[in-house]
Amino acid sequence: MPELAKENSKAGLEAFIGYWYAVKNYANQTGELSVLSTLSSTGCQLCGHMQKAAVDSYRDGRWIAGGTLHLATVEMDWDADTSPHLSRAQVIQDAISYYNADGTEGRPSDAATNDTFVILAEFETAWKVVDTGVIR
Fold it and tell me: What is the mean pLDDT of residues 38-56?
């Protein structure tokens, strides 16, 4: 984790969000959740769904191509006296192709997306995402 992402500050939260998406990218590309699972609270339902999807993409030899996440912007109204902190992140995800272990198409591809997520994070001894969701 970058040193800045360990700080309880506006810059620290922004760095943490960047790190969280980088770790999420790794989980999506490998199905490995050991780091990602420590960065979200157990009460974050979408976080759990995202983790399950990452693991499912690699179950029984399956794999994906594409799907890389690009964090375009992060915005927040920082108030040091408020917790959790509310941020908004524009996340662009490349198209994803899904494959079975034998190389055949596992399911139809997902088109690229450009979504804005709300991210609620709080700092106790470290930052954790406590909730997230797509703004529609």
Answer: 94
Residue closest to 93 by CA, chosen among 73, 111, 75: 111
The answer to whether 10 touches 76, Cβ cutoff 8 Å, is: yes
Rounded CA-CA distance 50/64 in Å is 15
d(CA 77, CA 98): 38
- List the structure tokens of 99: 């494959």
Amino acid at residue number 39? L
Positive/negative CA dihedral, 35, 36, 39, 40: negative
Question: DSSP characters for 94-130?
Answer: --EEEE-TTSSEEEEEEPPEEEEEEEEEEESSSEEEE
Looking at the DSSP assignment, which residues form a beta bridge with residue 128? 122
* Helix extents (H) in the chain: 10-30, 45-56
Whether the predicted model's global pTM rises above the 0.90 cut: yes
